[in-house]
Design a protein that fits this description.
Blueprint (H helix, E strand, L loop, with lengths): L41 H80 L6 H20 L2 E4 L12 E8 L8 E6 L1 E4 L5 E3 L1 E7 L15
Helix pairs in contact: 1-2
């Protein structure tokens, strides 16, 4: 052994911890340590972002709900306008129909009344066949009126006179209890079946009471 050379004999073997690392196994960098775990504060940030998004979605949902409510309100308003216009159109059609139908109804009403009057004017000894013929034709006229879409106005003696339903052919002086009461039905009235519009008022004889006391010499205004 020469001078300057150090003998390795008897020297302790290097510990395994002091042994150099295997160059084939890379050592993970410090930045890569714990890369699969979220850094501090990331969970709170994620929760805040989710809450913001939920708030935005809730606001959008409220806007859509309000928009739908406004659309439904507009649709309901349109339906009401359409229904109102339809009713006005139906009323106009009914009015025009009544305007054209009224002359026919009045004429048929007059014809029926004349036929029935002939039956009443027949002498007691007249043939039964003649009265039956007049009654048959009168009933035929009534059937024709009903086919035109009109119906009879129920009118009976003793009822109060109603100018909307009755036309007075004449008046007869009566006692106070019979004032404005129908005494005789000259001819029955007719009204539209669907609308109830009076096309031919019933012709009647009306009772009229005239007060003769000094304080009320004039006829009452309601008569």
């Amino acid at each position: 052994m020469t001078v300057g050379e150090t003998s390795t004999e008897g020297a302790p073997a290097p510990a395994e911890d002091d042994a150099p690392d295997d160059p084939g196994t890379p050592v993970p960098a410090a930045a890569e340590v714990g890369a699969g775990e979220p850094p501090d504060g990331s969970a709170a940030d994620l929760l805040a972002a989710v809450l913001v998004e939920l708030t935005a979605l809730r606001t959008r949902l409220d806007e859509l709900t309000e928009q739908r409510r406004r659309d439904e309100a507009r649709a309901e308003a349109r339906e009401k306008v359409i229904a109102h216009q339809r009713d006005e159109l139906d009323a106009l059609r009914a009015e025009r129909r009544g305007t054209h139908l009224r002359p026919l109804v009045v004429s048929l009403q007059k014809l029926r009344a004349e036929l029935l009057a002939e039956v009443d004017d027949l002498a007691p000894d007249a043939t039964h066949g003649l009265a039956a013929s007049f009654t048959y034709y009168a009933d035929d006229v009534a059937a024709l009126l009903e086919r035109c879409g009109v119906e009879r106005l129920p009118t009976e003696a003793g009822e109060l006179f109603d100018p909307a339903l009755h036309t007075a052919t004449r008046s007869v002086e009566v006692d106070a209890p019979q004032h404005r009461r129908i005494l005789t039905v000259v001819s029955e009235g007719w009204a539209e079946t669907t609308s109830g519009r009076v096309l031919a008022p019933a012709k009647v004889v009306v009772g009229r009471h005239i007060r003769t006391d000094r304080t009320d010499q004039e006829e009452p205004t309601d008569g």
